[in-house]
């Protein structure tokens, strides 16, 4: 009994490494503030997934299945938050090396995954497809939590760094506005795709 850690790690790399609401926000944050200034936000995003892994592991999905309206409300509140972040991205400007009060911090990063429909789907898929029947809730949850934290620690900074590299190419140029609008549009599209699939 246990968790197929290798199989789940492969899923996690695919899911965390591909575009989705959180990665689009990380890319845009890197573009706006640079990786160094955004590191507290990146850490919050990575650790924020733990806020859904542990409750799901200990039965939250069973509760949501019994009260479907609660799941529906969670899905739409989540989508609204990510779309609000996209709106903020669309209006932001790139200021290389920018720091200060405007940089989103750890606490803002912490709530990205709990309000990200793709994160809920990924965690649920982990428990339903990679945990053997009869595995204790603690063992299953710990396995899923450790794998996701390791993958996010490796890949989330890369998305943010990629945004910073894009910013270096377009900061102060007419294409800057196109980049920020494009990142915002991709963020909204990724949320809508998750909602349509779910």
Please explain how this structure is put together:
The protein has about 200 residues and is mostly helical. The chain is about 80% helix and about 0% strand. The chain is built from 10 helices and no strands. Helix 2 crosses helix 9 (about 135-170) and helix 2 runs antiparallel to helix 10. The longest helix has about 35 residues, at about 135-170. The relative contact order is 0.25. The mean pLDDT is about 80.
Our estimate of the beta-strand percent is under 5%
Count of DSSP H/I helices = 10
Terminal Cα separation, in Å? 30 Å
Unreliable spans: none
Which percent range fits the helix content?
over 70%
Gyration radius over CA:
17 Å
Overall shape: globular
| Largest sheet entry | none
Helix-strand sequence? HHHHHHHHHH
Helix/strand class: mainly alpha
What is the average of the pLDDT values?
82
Strand tally, please?
Answer: 0
Fill in the keyword field for this structure.
198 residues; mainly alpha
Care to give the gist of this entry?
The protein has helices spanning 5-17, 21-33, 35-48, 50-57, 60-66, 68-91, 106-110, 117-130, 137-170, 174-197. Helix 1 runs antiparallel to helix 8 (117-130), helix 2 crosses helix 9 (137-170) and helix 2 (21-33) runs antiparallel to helix 10.
Strand and helix map with partners:
Blueprint: H1 5-17, H2 21-33, H3 35-48, H4 50-57, H5 60-66, H6 68-91, H7 106-110, H8 117-130, H9 137-170, H10 174-197
Helix pairs in contact: 1-8, 1-9, 2-3, 2-6, 2-9, 2-10, 3-9, 4-8, 4-9, 6-10
């Amino acid at each position: 009994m246990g968790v197929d850690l290798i199989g789940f790690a492969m899923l996690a790399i695919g899911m965390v490494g591909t575009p989705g609401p959180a990665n689009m926000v990380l890319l845009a944050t890197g573009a706006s503030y640079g990786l160094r200034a955004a590191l507290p936000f990146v850490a919050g995003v990575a650790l924020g997934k733990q806020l859904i892994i542990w409750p799901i592991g200990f039965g939250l999905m069973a509760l949501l299945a019994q009260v479907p309206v609660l799941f529906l409300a969670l899905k739409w509140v989540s989508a609204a938050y990510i779309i609000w972040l996209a709106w903020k991205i669309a209006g932001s400007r790139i200021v290389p090396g920018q720091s200060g009060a405007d940089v989103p911090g750890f606490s803002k990063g912490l709530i990205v995954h709990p309000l990200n429909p793709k994160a809920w789907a990924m965690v649920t898929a982990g428990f339903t497809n990679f945990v053997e029947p009869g595995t204790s809730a603690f063992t299953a949850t710990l396995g899923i939590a450790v794998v996701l934290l390791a993958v996010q620690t490796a890949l989330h900074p890369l998305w943010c760094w990629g945004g910073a590299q894009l910013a270096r190419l377009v900061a102060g140029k007419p294409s800057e506005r196109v980049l920020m609008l494009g990142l915002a549009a991709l963020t909204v599209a990724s949320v809508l795709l998750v909602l349509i699939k779910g």
